[in-house]
């Protein structure tokens, strides 16, 4: 870690309060911030430094994974925080910001660096980057970096345009695109786990793996984001970014101690090997769903089209399931099933790997089938379970599942944003989305976006509180597979 000014656009926003301040606080407690670390929070309203610090303190009390008890250490942490007024569209505000940044930097002993964190709506990404460049803020004595939140574009073309604009102010090496799923400890564990365990390393291929199932299920509906979500849908909001990133992290095969460049190169290879879908085969491989009225844990909830802010005849997708195939020597023939949805039965993000059962007679799923599974629980719980099929000694002729598992407590484990901010401050891009990955993801998803926009594929309904449309189960049944574990 080096002397750094952390310039935070959107300092009064939801993400800053819920994630960024608590993450910085926990890094501070773990002695992972440099002594010369300063935050300049930016917003449109006039706020004093003291009032800003009080807001940051409140956010720690409300959202930090570790309880805020020691007031002396909180006070010492808050000393790093200053506030500046800035309206994204006012170029003169950037000049004032530069003065403030330089003032802060004069107190830093070593070469000062600048990290610009864009925790604002995507419509502001381009003007901010261009103003950083035009105002001289980008001319840091040390390094400069840009941390940018999702969404990175709305489709392939807008993502390419956004990237082109950003590249006028920052090089690819300076851009850290956050996909917070990549910050989750269990996701960061995936490659290490595979590299350092010869048993898994040996099994990580199409000879032993029958299929991979990646699920991100939410129980919530659209909440306050209705207006935004109705133009976005599950495909853009979850699938193009988080789900495809999980697929890449699972499918890459890395030599031990791989560098960030190698990780990204291998991820790119996975995306390049992903068999493309076209108009003709989308319907057979992608299930589009939307929830109707139902109940979540016994509490009735309305259907999507009856939610406040959603248009009555909306064809928006709140659920996606898809079958993907990777055309490379390790994965050829192994279907990757991905599903994500709102208003599902249970909140859970997990990856399930089903191993082949060579002696199995039929390809149909029997009532008492017990598969051999490796399960990575990513959230809300973190853990790994190996489920093995074993003979039940008390019930001859029957089988039972034996579980080997470990789970961690969420209080002890760093939050995704702690990992990511720490990595960005240290210049480690391993767990950030490289432009190549983002572009290839949009390219893969674009024909599906087109099919949805043209309504050339059906929109299936599912009751809130269910596992999604029945067609999602049929997608796997066609291949003799089955979604394992409830979602
Ligand atoms: P928010 O609406 O709560 O906050 C936006 C911030 O931008 C506010 O501080 C607001 O004052 C500021 N702002 C708005 N207009 C401005 C202007 N003209 N000049 C200067 N500042 C202005 O949004 P959020 O939920 O904090 O999200 C921020 C970004 O992070 C978005 O891109 C969002 O997609 C992304 N994101 C948010 C979450 C989350 O959990 N909230 C999760 C993932 C990604």
UniProtKB/TrEMBL annotation:
Glucose-6-phosphate dehydrogenase NAD-binding domain segment(s): 7-188
Name the UniProt record assigns to this protein: Glucose-6-phosphate 1-dehydrogenase
Reactions listed under catalytic activity: D-glucose 6-phosphate + NADP(+) = 6-phospho-D-glucono-1,5-lactone + NADPH + H(+)
Species this chain originates from: Paenibacillus typhae
Active site: residue positions: 242
GO cellular component: cytosol
Domain of life where this protein originates: Bacteria
Domain (Glucose-6-phosphate dehydrogenase C-terminal) ranges: 192-484
GO biological process: glucose metabolic process; pentose-phosphate shunt, oxidative branch
Record EC number: 1.1.1.49
Primary enzyme class: oxidoreductase
GO molecular function, one term: glucose-6-phosphate dehydrogenase activity
InterPro entries: G6P_DH, G6P_DH_C, G6P_DH_NAD-bd, NAD(P)-bd_dom_sf
